[in-house]
Amino acid sequence: MLSNHIQNGIETARLVWSRLPNSEEAEAEEEEFARRSNGGAGVESLDYEVIENYAYREQQAQRGKLWLWYYVCLKWLFALLIGIGTGLAAVFINLAVENFSGWKYAATFSIIQHSYFAGFVVYIIFNLGLVFSSVFIVTHFAPAAAGSGIPEIKGYLNGVDTHGILLFRTLIGKIFGSIGSVGGGLALGKEGPLVHTGACIASLLGQCGSTKYHLSSRWLRIFESDRDRRDLVTCGCAAGVAAAFRAPVGGVLFALEEVTSWWRSQLMWRVFFTSAVVAVVVRSAMGWCKSGKCGHFGSGGFIIWDISGGQEDYSFQELLPMAIIGVIGGLLGALFNQLTLYITNWRRKDLHKKGNRVKIIEVCLISLITSVISFGLPLFRKCSPCPNSEVNPDIECPRPPGTDGNFVNFYCSDDKEYNDLATIFFNTQDDAIRNLFSAKTFHEYSAQSLLTFLVMFYSLAVVTFGTAVPAGQFVPGIMIGSTYGRLVGMFVVKFYKKLNVEEGTYALLGAASFLGGSMRMTVSLCVIMVEITNNLKLLPLIMLVLLISKAVGDFFNSGLYEEQAQLRGIPLLESRPKQYMRTMTAKEACKNQKVVYFSRIVKVADIVSILRSNKHNGFPVVDHGQNGETLVIGLILRSHLLVLLQSKADFQNSPFPCDIRGISDRHNFSDFVKPVSSKGASIEEIHLTEEELELYLDLAPFLNPSPYIVPEDMTLAKVYNLFRQLGLRHIFVVPRASRVIGLITRKDLLIEENDNSESMELQSTVSQQLDRRMMGRNVQLEHPLLDSLLTQE
Question: What is the Cα–Cα distance from 241 to 191, expressed in whole angstroms?
Answer without folding.
Answer: 7
